[in-house]
Amino acid sequence: MLQRLEIQNVAIIDRVGIELGEGLNVLTGETGAGKSIIIDSINAILGQRLSKELIRTGRDKAVVEAVFQVDKDRLSDLFEGFGIEWEEDGTLVVSREFTTSGKNTCRINGRIATVSMLKQIGERLIDVHGQHDNQSLLRIESHIDLLDSFASSKLQGLKDEYLKHLEEYRKIKSKLKSLVGDRNERERKIDILKFQIDEIKKAKLKTGEEEELSRQREVLVNSEKITNTLSTAYEFLGTGSKFGESALDIINKSVLDFGNIEGFDDKYGSLKKRIEAVAIELDDIVSEIRSFRDDVEYDPNLLMQIEERLDVLYRLKKKYGDSVEEILEYKAEVQKELNEILNNEDLVKELNENLLEEDKELYRLAKEISNERVKASKLLEERIGEELKDLEMKSTSLKVKIDFDDSMDKAERKYNNNGLDRVEFMISTNVGEPLKPLAKIASGGEMSRVMLAIKTILAKVDKMPTMIFDEIDIGISGIAAQKVGEKLCYISKTHQVISVTHLAQIACMADNNYYIDKMTENGNTKTVVKKLDEKGKRDEIARIIGGASITDITLKHAEEMLDNAREFKNKRI
C-alpha cells in the first residue's frame, strides 16, 4: 500500500505531502489544479520515462519520494537480487531525483538504484489505469493478454512450456538458414570463413611469441643504455682503467695484506678465506659482465622485423581475440563452422527431423492453449455481461472471437509468442444489432465501462496492492457514473484504490477525499493538497454538483449522496 507521497518542484507543485489510506482514495479539484501532476509523480516512482519539462520553472531539480507498506514475500526475490535490506516493519521508501541536465538519482530504502530497478519493483506495487489506458481496448493485439489474465493457471503453464519449444524451434530454423539459406549468402559466408582461417594460418602463431618478441624489442630499443651500464660496471669492478684501481684489484690487495697477519691469529686467516671467496665471485661476475657486454648488438634490421611481427599480431588481436591463445581458439571455432557448412548434408537432415518434432509439439501445445482460451472466453463473456448490466449497459453484449490460424506460409505455421490464436473482442450495444469489433464502434464512455468491468472481474484474482484510476470516468454520467463509483468501491475492498475524478458519484464513495487546489502566492502559482473532513467532503461534492454556486439545495443533495454511499458501503460489507 502507498502510505505517503512527497513531491517537490514538479510542474506547478512547489512542495506537497499526501498521506494516503486504505480503501478508496479520491482526488478532486478544478481542471488544471495539478491532479494529473500527482499521477505523473507516482509514475516517476514507478520508473516511467520523464521529461525535464516536468521540473518546476526556476528550479534545477525535482524530487519525488514514496513510502509503501509492503508484504515481504511480494518483493523478496527482487530485493535479494538487488542486494537491498528489508526494514523489519515492511516499510519501503523509494525516491527519484531528476535534474534539468537529465541526470536521474534513484534510491530504494536509501540504497542507490537504477530506473530499471524502480520499474521492476513498481510493476509489483501499483497498477495505473488512465483514460488513455482504455486505448488498449482499441489495440486488438492486447485483447489476447486480457483474456489470458482471466484464464486458469493451467493456461500459463501451457504457455511457459510452449515458449520453451518455440525458442528451440527458432534456434533450429536459424541454424538451418545458416547452413542451407540463400545461395549467395552461403557463398559469401564460406568466403569470409576461409579468409579468416587463411589469415590466421599464414601468421603461424606460437603461444608465448608475443611476450618474447616484446622482450627482444625492449632490449634492442635500449641497447645503448644496456651497453653503457655494462661497460661502466666492467671498468669499475674489473679493469679500473678509468678509475685507477678496480674493485677486484682492491679486494685482491686485501687478500695479500691479510696473508701477512694470518699467522698471528686464526680469526685473521678465516677473514682472509672469506675475502678470497669474494674475490673469486667478483672475478666470475666481471667475466660475465664482459660476456654480456660483448653480446649486446644493435641490429636495426632485426628491430624492424620484430616491429613488423608485433604489428601482425596486433592486427590479428584486433580482429579475432585479445591474445594469441584466443585467436587460435577462434580459428578452431571458425574451422568447425566452415566444416558444418561444407559438409552439412547429415547435419541438415538431423536438424530438419528435430524441427519437425518441435513443430508437432508446438502445434499440440497451441491447440491446448486455444482450447483453454475458449473455456476462459465463455466464462469471461458471462462475467463481463453481468458487470456491464450493472454499469447500465443492459443491452450490450460482449463476445470473445478466437480464430485458430493454423494456415501455412511457405510451408511453415505462423507461430508467435501467444500460439496460433487471434483474439478480438466483439460488441453489440443494442438488442438486435450484430456483433462488431469493439475497437471500431464503442464510445469513450463505453470503453471506460468495459475496461472497468474487466478490472472488476480481475480484482478478485489480481494481487496488485494498489490500483490507480486516472479519470476513467470520462464520457459517463448519471446512473452509469453511480455504478462506476460502486465498482471502484467494490475493488477497494481488496485493494488500495486511488481515483482522480470529476464526478460526485465517485467522490461520495471515497474512504479518503483529497482536494487539489491551485493558488497564487508572492507572484508564483503552486498546487496544494488538502485532506477533507466530513464537512469538507460534503462541500466538495456540492461544488462538483453546482459549480461555483454552492446553495442549500446543492449541499442537501451532496448530503443525500453521502448518505446513500454510506448505506451502499455498509451493505457491501
Q: Main beta sheet: strand number and arrangement?
A: 6 strands, antiparallel
Radius of gyration: 41 Å
At the fourth level of CATH, the homologous superfamily of the domain at 1-125 and 464-533 is P-loop containing nucleotide triphosphate hydrolases
Q: Assign the CATH architecture of the domain at 1-125 and 464-533.
A: 3-Layer(aba) Sandwich
What would the CATH topology of the domain at 1-125 and 464-533 be?
A: Rossmann fold
What would the average pLDDT be, to the nearest integer?
85
Helix run count: 19
Helix-and-strand structural type:
alpha+beta
Principal-axis shape equals elongated
The neighbouring-strand order within the major sheet is 2-1-4-5-6-7
Poorly predicted segments = none
Approximate helicity band: 55-70%
How far apart the termini lie comes to: 21 Å
DSSP E strands, number: 17
Strand content: 15-25%
Structure description:
This protein is α+β, with helices and mostly antiparallel strands and about 575 residues long. The chain has a domain at about 1-125 and about 465-535: Rossmann fold (3-Layer(aba) Sandwich), CATH 3.40.50. The protein is about 55% helix and about 20% strand. The protein has 19 helices and 17 strands. It has helices spanning about 35-45, 70-80, 115-120, 140-150, 155-180, 185-205, 210-220, 225-240, 245-260, 265-295, 300-320, 325-340, 345-390, 440, 445-460, 480-490, 505, 535-545, 550-570, and strands spanning about 1-10, 15-20, 25-30, 60-70, 90-100, 105-110, 110-115, 125-130, 395-405, 410, 410-415, 420-430, 435, 465-470, 495-500, 510-520, 525-530. Strands 2-1-4-5-6-7 form a six-stranded antiparallel sheet. It has a six-stranded mixed sheet with strand order 8-14-15-3-16-17, with helices on both faces. Strand 14, helix 16 and strand 15 form a beta-alpha-beta unit. Helix 5 (about 155-180) runs antiparallel to helix 13 (about 345-390) and helix 18 crosses helix 19 (about 550-570). The longest helix has about 45 residues, at about 345-390. It is elongated. The model has no long low-confidence stretch (mean pLDDT about 85). Keywords: ATP-binding, Coiled coil, DNA damage, DNA repair, Nucleotide-binding. InterPro entries: DNA_recomb/repair_RecN, P-loop_NTPase, RecF/RecN/SMC_N. One of its GO terms (cellular component) is bacterial nucleoid. It comes from Acetivibrio mesophilus. GO terms for molecular function: ATP binding.
